[in-house]
Design a protein that fits this description.
With 279 residues, this protein is an alpha+beta fold. The protein contains 7 helices and 11 strands. It binds a DNA duplex (16 and 16 nucleotides) through loops.
DNA sequence: CAATCAACCTGGGTGC
DNA sequence: TGCACCCAGGTTGATT
C-alpha cells in the first residue's frame, strides 16, 4: 500500500543514499525476470550498467531516477514492493528480485512479495508522457479548493472513487482517501459534484494534513512497507478509520461503531454519524 | 468520455 | 492440526 507518503519517504532516503552513485553490476532474478523491463527498445541491463544516478524524484506513486545518460529508471512499488539500500555483503532480502551493485560497496535491492512492482528503464519522453497522464500533485500550490471544486463539478461518480483516480489527483490511495474523508466529514458514497465549496475546502485541507502527517511519520506500515533502511513507518498508529472497520472498532471522535463496505472495489471504512449520507 | 470490473499475485487469516 | 477458501489493493485494459 505504498501511497504518496510512503513513496516520498523512499525518495528522500534514496536521494541521500544513491544520487551520485554509479551502478556497476545488476542481478535479475531468474524466477521473475520481468521485474526489470523497458520502453522504447532499450536494453535495461546494458543501459543501467555503468550509469550514474543523477537525481531521485517522485510523481504520484512513481519513483523517478534520472540517469546521467538522460534515460530514466522508473520504479513502482504497487502494493508490496520494497526498495532497500544495504551493504553488498548482506544476504538477499525476502522476495528479492533485483539487485544493483553501486560504486561505494552498497546495493540497491528490489523485493516484492506479490510481484506487482516493476523497475522500468525509459527515455525522457516516456517520463513526460507518464507525468502528463497523472493528475495534480496534492502537496503543491496547484492543489487548491478552487481547482478541485471545478474538477469535481464534472464528476458524477462517488467521491471515494474520484479521489482514487490518479488522472485527477496523483498519489492518493485507499488509506489516505478514507482518512481524508473522515477528517472532512464526507460520506464516501457522496456524488463528487454534490460537494459544496465548504466541503471541498475541508477536503483539500484534510488531504494535505493526512499526507503531511504521514510523511512526518515516515509512512504507514501495515505489513510490508519499509523505507530503504529497512525501517517501518510509524503512521499506522495515527490513522483514525482505515483498517479499523472490520475489527468492529468505534469512531475515535463520537464512539459510533464504524461502518464498512466495498466502494469502487475497495474496502472502505467510515463513521456513519460523523460522515452521514447526503440527500 | 466516464464508470465498472476482472486480472495480476501470494502470505496471512478465517472457518470448518 | 490440516486444508480450502477468502482477502488485501495499484494499475491496466476490456467492457458497458
Amino acid at each position: 500500500m505504498p501511497e504518496l507518503p510512503e513513496v516520498e519517504t523512499v525518495r528522500r532516503i534514496a536521494h541521500k543514499l544513491v544520487v551520485g552513485r554509479r551502478i556497476e553490476r545488476l542481478h535479475v532474478s531468474e524466477s521473475f525476470p520481468c521485474v526489470l523491463n523497458s520502453e522504447g527498445g532499450i536494453d535495461p541491463v546494458s543501459t543501467l550498467t555503468g550509469a550514474t544516478i543523477a537525481s531521485a524524484q517522485r510523481r504520484g506513486k512513481y519513483l523517478l531516477f534520472e540517469l546521467d545518460s538522460g534515460l530514466w529508471m522508473v520504479v513502482h512499488l504497487r502494493m508490496t514492493g520494497r526498495l532497500l539500500v544495504m551493504d553488498r555483503h548482506e544476504p538477499p532480502v525476502r522476495f528479492e528480485h533485483l539487485s544493483m551493485e553501486l560504486d561505494n560497496g552498497m546495493d540497491i535491492r528490489f523485493g516484492d512479495q506479490r510481484k506487482f512492482g516493476r523497475v522500468t528503464v525509459v527515455p525522457p519522453d516516456a517520463v513526460s508522457a507518464l507525468s502528463g497522464r497523472l493528475g495534480v500533485e496534492p502537496l503543491t500550490a496547484d492543489f487548491t479548493s478552487a481547482w478541485l471544486q471545478s474538477a469535481l463539478q464534472r464528476r458524477p461518480g462517488k467521491i471515494k472513487s474520484v479521489l482514487l483516480d490518479q488522472h485527477l489527483i496523483a498519489g492518493l490511495g485507499n488509506i489516505y482517501v478514507d482518512e481524508a474523508l473522515f477528517r472532512a466529514r464526507i460520506h464516501p458514497l457522496t456524488p463528487a459534484r454534490d460537494l459544496d465549496s465548504n466541503d471541498v475546502e475541508h477536503l483539500v485541507g484534510a488531504i494535505v494534513d493526512v499526507l503531511e502527517m504521514a510523511i512526518r511519520n515516515q509512512g504507514t506500515t501495515f505489513s510490508t512497507f519499509e523505507n530503504p533502511y529497512g525501517e517501518s513507518g510509524s503512521n499506522a498508529a495515527f490513522l483514525k478509520v482505515y483498517g479499523k472497520g472490520r475489527k468492529g472498532e468505534t469512531c475515535p471522535r463520537c464512539g459510533t461503531p464504524l461502518a464498512r463496505a466495498v466502494v469502487g472495489g475497495r474496502g472502505t471504512t467510515w463513521c456513519p454519524h460523523c460522515q452521514p449520507a447526503r440527500g
